[in-house]
């Protein structure tokens, strides 16, 4: 049976799972039809719903398209049948059967409450209200602004909201008539706060407080209501409130109900659900399914597959309690023997509530007399499990500290279930299902702020809204505070609040309002860990501080964290897992851990708990690790045997560095770490550590072999050079000139490349570094080739080869063999070049050096073109292209496409040549590869000229 939901965000359920309805226009279209279910809605009315007063000329075609998409959704939800949506002049009619639309079921329930209220059947009032209220998921059509704010839906939403509030008033009247005064106080307090001008809630709250012996509080409620009515509406409280006030003035509280009266109804202790609950549809559906929220056919107990306990976990402020209460209200029907609720205060300053005291309360709530309670906690737990054995009770255990805290309170099988919230993952809690919560996605953040502050208001300042959402980091607690501030300050522009939420400039001070305080919420988690009696947790608290102070913007791995913390990799992994289990760090992918933005700011403010020397030493260890890790990545990416001398050979022995299977893996790792490397370079300069700074920049050589075109390497080399010069670091300058020359050469900036090569050669000659001289002369050879000067290229290649032989470097010789092959190619000696390239390919194939192999294959393919060997030329070029694409090497891909296009042109394959030139041109323009852009345009021009000549001859 299909279920349609309007009471909250718009949903369609096929009886097994939610069916997605994608596209705002399609969702609005469905809402407009559901609001007029089983009635014909004209085409004009539907177009107005979709476009308002600005109906476009293409509206008829667009409406037909949206209707087609809607029909697909409805057919998929209805077992493939296409009978729901019918064309009925002058429009369309959506068929909705009895019980399928939650708004209809809800209103029928409210009508049943009304009838029971009129005949003073208080048990029936409560029973019918209990059935109707869980259908309310929040403000109807909460996700469809601005459509939901237009006249027709707005009126319907108002009617439904008013019906809900009236039913709630009647249900609390029934509670009072049944003598449940004390139980009504907490939910009525919440409702009166949410609706400060609603007299019915205040009247019931006054009576509940008065009849519970709390006269002073009852007087305060009356005075607060009267003040609000006079100030806001200029009226006095009505007759019903005045009568209640007279009862309070009489000072004779009604006698409390006896034990039997209190236990005639199953306990229902769930807190009131917040009206502004938004999003979390997938998580809510998961929890409901795990708890068995859909009863078995013919029964009202949990459905098949229900678990004993569901743990909703997440960082402080992420909305765990809100989700748990939201779901608990909606599965109440599956637990007719009651709902027990307790805040376990696992992260409260005053200390956690014990299982011993909570078991006493729960047993009393279930009718066990206090005199019968055992003194031993384990015995109480046995009695509690026995009391639950034949009951279907839902336990909502909020804010658990750890698994041991909550374990004695869980049912042992049977039909009861527990819904637990915790900042810990509670991975060691047996028999439980885990539902971790992440920050809200942007769409839900927007919807929540729209509900709290007004849809039109948040829509009017999109840039400020984006800044506010970014500052709140998707944290519902922060968003509620922001929404509350905006609601209470209607004259404030969003830009003003966005400015106050600038990170590290008082943002956490702004994110506090009354009892809602992001900093205090985070502190509960952190302080519990810092003051733990477990050494690993105390160590994790220190890691949290160091990460926040020194590295909050970047992810760490067990290897990098080991350097920061000065521990082994295994110990660092254990520390990070403790933080992840407590949701103090995010763990978005295996072995990568990162602080949430707001948590990072909080952690950074804990710097007074470590000395400046301790923090600096830890940071230098981490920066040194990055320098060593980049050196390893460059060795893997380039297979180069020459690299700068390490910072401290002894210190390297204690570092756990990443290992790379091939150049592709090394380059991808560096790309992922690049933002952290840039930050590390800046931090090294600030600390006066030129030796670290230039090694970081030089260490990007491997990544630049495929990503030089981005300009990132140039910027890092320039920044490191400024640092090296400021500290007169001659070794650093030598290496930076050497690598800066390579960066210029890759970008075809030939004169600048030669200038830096000459400076580097002088500096390394000054140091007597034979291997460096050989490498630099080899680079000069490559540069002269690029400048089309084969004679100088050969001279420098031979000088470089001789130095490599003198140094005993066989790999260097192979590299120079490739240079010599390039010279033969340029001198018009393709047979000699082909032989040299084949030898180079034999030497490097299988070594894992993809960049070198792809370059050799590309050049070899071009020589085969000259030799007229078409099939092998394209086979070789295709292999080179596949390597470049696999490595995401945009510059190398463009190189390969240029040679492939030339080969197609050479062999008279004009259409293939044109397609290849155009593909390369698009790539070159996307990445600003100036030389390749010119080559592509010349190639296309040549094709056009050839076509024009053929046309002339044909004429």
UniProtKB/TrEMBL annotation:
Q: Name the source's superkingdom.
A: Bacteria
Looking at the keywords, is Heme present?
no
OmpR/PhoB-type domain segment(s):
1-96
Point out the DNA-binding stretch(es): 1-96
A GO biological process this protein is involved in? phosphorelay signal transduction system
One annotated GO molecular function is: DNA binding
Q: Which family does it belong to?
A: Belongs to the AfsR/DnrI/RedD regulatory family.
What is the name of the protein in this document? BTAD domain-containing putative transcriptional regulator
């Amino acid at each position: 049976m299909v279920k349609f939901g309007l009471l909250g965000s718009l949903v369609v359920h096929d009886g097994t799972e939610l069916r997605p309805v994608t596209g705002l226009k399609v969702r609005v279209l469905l809402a407009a039809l559901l609001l007029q279910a089983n009635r014909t809605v004209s085409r004009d009315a539907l177009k107005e719903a979709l476009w308002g007063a600005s109906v476009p000329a293409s509206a008829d075609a667009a409406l037909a398209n949206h209707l087609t998409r809607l029909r697909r959704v409805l057919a998929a939800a209805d077992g493939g049948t296409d009978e729901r949506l019918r064309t009925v002049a002058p429009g369309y009619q959506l068929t909705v059967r009895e019980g399928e639309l939650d708004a209809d079921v809800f209103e029928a329930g409210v009508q049943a409450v009304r009838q029971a209220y009129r005949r003073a059947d208080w048990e029936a009032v409560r029973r019918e209200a209990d059935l109707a209220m869980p259908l309310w998921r929040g403000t109807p059509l909460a996700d469809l602004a601005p459509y939901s704010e237009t006249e027709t839906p707005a009126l319907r939403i108002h009617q439904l909201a008013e019906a809900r509030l009236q039913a709630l008033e009647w249900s609390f009247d029934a509670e009072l008539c049944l003598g449940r005064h004390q139980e009504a106080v907490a939910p009525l307090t919440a409702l009166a706060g949410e609706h400060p001008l609603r007299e019915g809630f205040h009247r019931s709250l006054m009576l509940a407080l008065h009849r519970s012996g709390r006269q002073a509080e009852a007087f305060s409620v009356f005075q607060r209501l009267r003040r609000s009515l006079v100030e806001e509406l200029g009226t006095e409280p009505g007759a019903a409130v005045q009568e209640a006030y007279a009862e309070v003035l009489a000072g004779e509280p009604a006698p409390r109900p006896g034990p039997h009266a209190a236990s005639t109804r199953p306990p229902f202790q769930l807190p009131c659900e917040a009206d502004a609950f938004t999003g979390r549809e997938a998580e809510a559906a998961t929890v409901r399914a795990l708890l068995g929220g859909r009863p078995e056919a013919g029964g009202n107990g949990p459905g098949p597959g229900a678990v004993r306990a569901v743990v909703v976990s997440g960082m402080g402020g992420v909305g765990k309690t809100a989700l748990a209460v939201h779901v608990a209200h909606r599965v109440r029907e599956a637990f007719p023997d009651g709902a027990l609720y307790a805040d376990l205060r696992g992260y409260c300053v005053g200390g956690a509530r014990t299982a011993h005291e909570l078991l006493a309360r729960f047993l009393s709530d279930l009718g066990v007399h206090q005199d019968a309670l055992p003194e031993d906690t384990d015995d109480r737990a046995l009695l509690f499990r026995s009391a639950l054995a034949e009951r279907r009770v839902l336990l909502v255990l909020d804010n658990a500290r750890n698994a041991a805290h909550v374990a004695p309170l869980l049912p042992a099988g049977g039909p009861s279930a527990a819904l637990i919230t915790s900042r810990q993952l509670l991975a060691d809690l047996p028999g439980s299902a885990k539902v971790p919560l992440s920050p809200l996605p942007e769409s839900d953040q927007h919807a929540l702020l729209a509900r709290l502050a007004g849809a039109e208001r948040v829509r009017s300042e999109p840039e400020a809204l984006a800044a506010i959402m970014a500052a709140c980091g998707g944290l519902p607690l922060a968003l509620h505070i922001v929404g509350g501030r905006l609601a209470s300050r209607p004259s404030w522009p969003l830009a003003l609040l966005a400015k106050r939420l600038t990170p590290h400039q008082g943002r956490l001070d702004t994110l506090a309002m009354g009892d809602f305080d992001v900093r205090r919420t985070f502190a509960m988690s952190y302080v519990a860990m810092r003051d733990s009696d477990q050494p690993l947790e105390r160590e994790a608290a220190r890691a949290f501080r160091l990460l926040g102070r020194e590295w909050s913007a970047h992810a760490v791995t067990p290897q990098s964290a080991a350097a920061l913390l000065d521990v082994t990799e295994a110990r660092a992994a254990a520390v990070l897992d403790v933080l992840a289990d407590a949701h103090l760090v995010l763990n978005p992918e295996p072995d990568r851990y990162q602080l949430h933005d707001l948590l990072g700011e909080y952690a950074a403010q804990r710097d007074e708990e470590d000395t400046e020397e301790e923090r600096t030493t830890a940071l230098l260890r981490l920066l040194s690790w990055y320098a060593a890790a980049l050196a390893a990545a460059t060795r893997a990416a380039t297979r180069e045997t020459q690299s700068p001398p390490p910072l401290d050979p002894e210190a390297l022995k204690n570092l756990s560095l990443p290992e790379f299977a091939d150049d592709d893996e090394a380059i991808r790792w560096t790309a992922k770490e690049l933002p952290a490397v840039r930050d590390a370079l800046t931090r090294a300069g600030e600390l006066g550590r030129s030796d670290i700074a230039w090694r970081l920049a030089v260490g990007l050589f491997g990544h630049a072999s495929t990503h030089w075109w981005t300009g990132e390497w140039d910027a890092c080399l320039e920044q490191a050079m400024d640092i090296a010069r400021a500290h007169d670091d001659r070794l650093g300058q030598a290496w930076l000139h050497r690598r800066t020359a390579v960066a210029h050469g890759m970008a075809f900036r030939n004169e600048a490349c030669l200038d830096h090569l000459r400076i580097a050669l002088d500096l390394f000659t000054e140091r007597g570094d034979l291997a460096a001289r050989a490498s630099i002369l080899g680079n000069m050879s490559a540069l002269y080739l690029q400048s089309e000067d084969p004679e100088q290229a050969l001279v420098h290649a031979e000088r470089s080869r001789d130095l490599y032989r003198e140094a005993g470097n066989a790999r260097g010789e192979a590299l120079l063999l490739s240079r010599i092959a390039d010279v033969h190619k340029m001198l018009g000696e393709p047979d000699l070049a082909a032989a040299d390239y084949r030898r180079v390919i034999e030497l490097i194939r299988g070594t894992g050096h993809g960049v070198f192999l792809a370059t050799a294959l590309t050049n070899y393919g071009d020589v085969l073109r000259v030799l007229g060997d078409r099939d092998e030329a394209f086979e070789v070029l295709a292999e080179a292209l596949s390597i470049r694409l696999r490595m995401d090497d945009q510059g190398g891909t463009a190189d390969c496409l240029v040679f492939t296009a030339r080969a197609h042109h050479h062999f008279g394959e004009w259409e293939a040549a044109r397609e290849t030139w155009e593909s390369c041109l698009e790539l070159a323009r996307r990445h600003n590869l100036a030389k390749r852009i010119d080559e592509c345009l010349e190639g296309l021009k040549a094709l056009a000229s050839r076509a024009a000549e053929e046309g002339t001859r044909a004429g």
